[in-house]
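Reviewers asked in the last cycle whether our approach scales beyond single polypeptides. To address this, we selected a multi-component target totalling 392 residues and predicted its structure end to end. The input consisted of the following lines:
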Amino acid sequence: MSKEADLEYPVINPVADRWSPYGFSEEPVSTDDLRSLLEAARWAPSSYNEQPWRYIVATRSNTQQYDAVLSCLAEPNQQWAKAAAVLMLGVISRQFEKNGKPNKAAEHDLGLASANLSAEATQRGLFVHQMIGIDPEKAREVFAIPEGYEALTGLAVGHRANPDTLPDALRERDEAPRQRKAQSEFVFGGKFGEAL
Amino acid sequence: MSKEADLEYPVINPVADRWSPYGFSEEPVSTDDLRSLLEAARWAPSSYNEQPWRYIVATRSNTQQYDAVLSCLAEPNQQWAKAAAVLMLGVISRQFEKNGKPNKAAEHDLGLASANLSAEATQRGLFVHQMIGIDPEKAREVFAIPEGYEALTGLAVGHRANPDTLPDALRERDEAPRQRKAQSEFVFGGKFGEAL
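The resulting structure, written as structure tokens, was:
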């Protein structure tokens, strides 16, 4: 089995080797690793350096917090994410702190931070599977998220499971090759749609 | 002068060494480098593997395309971005291709892709400065961006300028230390706002 990216051009390993497993093992993530993942998020760029990202983090050893984060994921995601050593919610601040104006880049900039987090995880042999399928209003209630902030994503973080230990449906997803559009389909050099 | 990140925890160089200069030199970016930056974007994760990102790319050697992208940036950004060897617009697809339903993750997932692009650039000694300050309607007109797609960001890509060659205002911005919130301000381990 290979999940190697079918590269058109060479890229760094933290990008090339990253993929989103459905099968996680319960092996813990060390505090050092977890803090470095969040540190990578910390140094992402953001519009006006607003840093609109917040992460609500739960490790399996804190059962109450873990179950609270798990309960905010969409039910189909809970089924596989409940095996991960760490669960997080990615939360955005919708307004600029200094003047209360809407931050048009908030969702985008959470993506910048979470991509850094994933690159750091990949380099450390860890895996991240992000989810848009969460319940933001439940998260608001469970974690007392104030007005102006909103949970946007879930993140499962941990070690991969041995595929042989997974139910067939998850194993098949984890064994499927990674697929992407060709560069010619998303990199344009003239009008929109004209390949570079 | 040092722009070294003041790290609380160690992170990989493509994250630690990345920052967004205002001063770009006109030194070209090789085609190999440019294609690898876009390849890194290509392998980002996305909701349902939709890959909602598109990039409109212009190198300085193609004056017409370069000036067209430049004209879509907000005026204050044009002032410094016009020195960069490569300009891009980051465009999102707002609906899923297969069923036309809204993609709630589109902006976020463009962020994931552009962070990968920036990490690859950093590893190659190149710099990226992203902008939310663009004119999406002008971009729609200039590049014939169809309904359902929307330009969200601009990206200046290239080599740094020697700071001594920059006007004072830009040099001061590029020499200022990089600052971030502490992890305790955005990493929560209980309710929202409670540090992990």
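The two ends of chain A are 34 Å apart (CA to CA). We regard this as preliminary and will revisit it once experimental data from Aim 1 are available.
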